[in-house]
Design a protein that fits this description.
Blueprint (H helix, E strand, L loop, with lengths): L6 E6 L5 H13 L4 E4 L11 H11 L4 E4 L2 E2 L5 H15 L5 E4 L4 H5 L8 H18 L6 E4 L6 E5 L10 E3 L4 H10 L2 E3 L11 H14 L8 E10 L15 E3 L1 H14 L4 E6 L4 H19 L2
Parallel strand pairs: 1-2, 1-12, 2-3, 4-5, 5-8, 8-9, 9-10, 10-11, 10-12
Antiparallel strand pairs: 6-7
Length: about 300
C-alpha cells in the first residue's frame, strides 16, 4: 500500500465556538493530516451551518481537504448542493470532497418541513442526486434534462465546474444503499459504529465489492473510509474494532495496531478519527503518534 493511497483525517462538530473549530482544523493541517470532516446536522440549534464552516476552514488552511461528514441530502437539494460544492472547490483550489447521506434522523429532519422517506425512497433519491450532481458539474453550460421522481431537471444549465473531480462518498448502511455505493459512488464513508457496528463492516465491504464487479467496476476504485470514535490515552486499554460500538480508548500504539488491521483485513485506505473530546491535543496525538505508526504497519 503506497503512502499516497492512504489518507488520515479528523471529524469535527460545527460548534458555535468557531475559533475553537478553526484551531482544531489548523492543528490537523499542521500535523500533516489529509482530511477534515464536519458533521452535518442542520436541525441542531447550537450547530453552525456545516457548509459555512467548511468554507471558513478552507480559508483558514492551505493544503488539507474538507468534506461534510455526511451532507444531509433531504435538507440539501442536489442542484443547489452541486453549486455550493463546486464553489467551495474552486475557491480552495480543489480541496473539497462530498460525502452524502440519504437521511437518518427523520423525526428531526421532518420538523424542518421535509417529507419523511422510506428506505427505498431515500435510496432512489440518493441515486438521482448523484446523477444530478455529476451532470451539473460539467463545464459546458449545456442544459441538463434528467427524469426523476425526486430531483428532475428540466433544462438546468450545467456549471460551474469544480476545480478537480469531486469524489462522492456515501454514508450507506443498508444492503441496497451499499450496493448503490459499489455501483456508482466514488467511496464509502463507513458510518461510526453507533450506527453500523464493527462486525457489520466486513459484510458491508463485501456488498460494495460485489456490486462494483456486477457494474463492471474495479472494487478498489471505490474508496473505503473507516471512521472511528474514541480517545487516545497514555495508559493501555483493551480496544477492539471487530465487534460492538464501544469507543476506542487506548494508547497511540494500540490505535495504530487496530487501524492497520482494518487496512489489511478490509479494503480501507482512509481513516478518520472522531475524538470523544475535541481538543487540539487529541488531534495532535492522532497526527503525530497514531498516523506515523499506522503508516509503518501498513507498509506505506
Amino acid at each position: 500500500m503506497t503512502e499516497s493511497a492512504v489518507r488520515f483525517g479528523v471529524s469535527l462538530i460545527p460548534d458555535v465556538d468557531i475559533a475553537a473549530v478553526r484551531a482544531r482544523a489548523v492543528a490537523a493541517e499542521e500535523g500533516g493530516l489529509d482530511l477534515v470532516g464536519v458533521q452535518d446536522h442542520p436541525y441542531v440549534p447550537t450547530y453552525l451551518d456545516t457548509f459555512v464552516v467548511l468554507g471558513h476552514l478552507l480559508a483558514a488552511t492551505r493544503t488539507i481537504r474538507v468534506f461534510p461528514d455526511v451532507a444531509n441530502l433531504p435538507l440539501r437539494p442536489p442542484a443547489l448542493l452541486a453549486k455550493t460544492a463546486a464553489a467551495l472547490d474552486v475557491v480552495s483550489g480543489g480541496r473539497f470532497e462530498l460525502a452524502l447521506g440519504a437521511g437518518g434522523y427523520w423525526d428531526a429532519i421532518t420538523r424542518l418541513g421535509v417529507p419523511r422517506r422510506t428506505s427505498a425512497e431515500a435510496n432512489a433519491a440518493l441515486r438521482e442526486a448523484i446523477a444530478v450532481l455529476r451532470a451539473l458539474w460539467a463545464d459546458d453550460g449545456e442544459p441538463v434534462e434528467l427524469a426523476g421522481e425526486y430531483y428532475p431537471l428540466a433544462g438546468a444549465p450545467a456549471g460551474p465546474a469544480p476545480a478537480h473531480p469531486i469524489e462522492i462518498w456515501t454514508g450507506a448502511q443498508g444492503p441496497k444503499a451499499l450496493a448503490l455505493t459499489g455501483e456508482i459512488a466514488d467511496g464509502w464513508a463507513a458510518p461510526i459504529a453507533a450506527y453500523l457496528p464493527y462486525e457489520k463492516w466486513a459484510d458491508a465491504n463485501r456488498l460494495i465489492d460485489e456490486a462494483a464487479v456486477t457494474a463492471g467496476r474495479d472494487p478498489a476504485s471505490v474508496r473505503r473510509i473507516a471512521q472511528v470514535v474514541g480517545t487516545i490515552t497514555t495508559e493501555r486499554g483493551r480496544p477492539r474494532l471487530d465487534t460492538g460500538a464501544a469507543p476506542v480508548r487506548g494508547t497511540a500504539a494500540e490505535w495504530a495496531d487496530l487501524l492497520a488491521r482494518l487496512g489489511t483485513g478490509q479494503p480501507f485506505t482512509s481513516f478518520v478519527f472522531w475524538p470523544e473530546q475535541e481538543t487540539t491535543g487529541q488531534i495532535a496525538a492522532f497526527a503525530g503518534e497514531v498516523v506515523p505508526e499506522t503508516r509503518r504497519l501498513l507498509g506505506a
